[in-house]
Design a protein that fits this description.
The protein is α/β, with parallel strands linked by helices and 228 residues long. Helix content is 31%, strand content 24%. Strands 1-2-3-4-5-6-7-8 form an eight-stranded mixed sheet, with helices on one face. Helix 4 packs parallel to helix 6. The chain is globular.
């Protein structure tokens, strides 16, 4: 299940020193994904020993405050629940990174009070969602359901979009702002080329200045807009 691990992070969970665990496998095929190996080679990649992870956490009590579960897509693994319950019993904060395509599982995690922070990737406008996610067709209502569930939760959350010139226009971002209006936190993520990108397709990043201009346009729709 877990295929990658960053033992110490100061940036992935806002205000929290965390350890990041990456699951393999995803139900999306975003062409710009920088974790391509986790998507295409997850079956042959060695898995991490859960007991090793838990012993690490036990020894780091007081030094690490949170655990981030990323991927890949963690909601594809129902068997992750006991691990998450153990992490919470140990007193750690828990953050989930998700593509939002499994709203029922997200709701289950919230109902069990297993999450302290949720970061959901919003790929694009509804009309451009499938192509941005690398799919021929998709059920956008599942994304809409997750947005609603997360916004109505009493947990900390953020929606975020990795922006490329080939897939996102200023008009698209404004539409996303209208769609997510009233959300607490929205993050514009600058696309960065990676040797482990899922496809060989070339993408172009907006400059940081351009992203800040987009942030100004989006500010009226959100409590906070950040550029990363």
């Amino acid at each position: 299940m877990f295929k990658g691990w960053i033992k110490n992070s100061f940036i992935d969970y806002p205000g929290v020193i965390s350890t990041i665990l990456f699951v393999g496998k995803c139900n999306f095929r975003c062409p710009y994904c920088h974790n391509g190996e986790l998507i295409t080679n997850h079956e042959t990649m060695p898995g991490l020993d859960m007991n090793v992870i838990l012993r690490f956490l036990e020894k780091r009590r007081g030094l690490i405050d949170g655990v981030v579960i990323s991927g890949g897509e963690a909601t594809l693994y129902p068997q992750i629940l006991p691990f998450m319950e153990t992490v919470k019993r140990m007193g750690f904060l828990l953050k989930l990174d998700t593509n939002g395509y499994n709203p029922g599982f997200i709701e289950k995690l919230l109902n069990r009070d297993l999450l302290d922070y949720i970061a959901m990737d919003v790929k694009n406008t509804g009309a451009k969602y499938a192509v941005t996610a690398g799919l021929s067709v998709m059920d956008i209502s599942r994304i809409e359901a997750s947005v609603k569930i997360i916004k109505e939760s009493n947990k900390e959350y953020e929606f975020r979009t990795t922006v490329t010139k080939e897939l996102h226009t200023k008009k698209d971002l404004r539409e996303i702002g209208k769609w997510l209006k009233g959300s607490r936190r929205y993050v514009l993520q600058q696309y960065r080329a990676s040797d482990s990108q899922l496809t060989e397709r070339e993408f172009t990043s907006y400059t940081e200045g351009e992203l800040h201009e987009f942030a100004e346009i989006l500010n009226p729709y959100f409590q906070k807009v950040l550029v990363k």
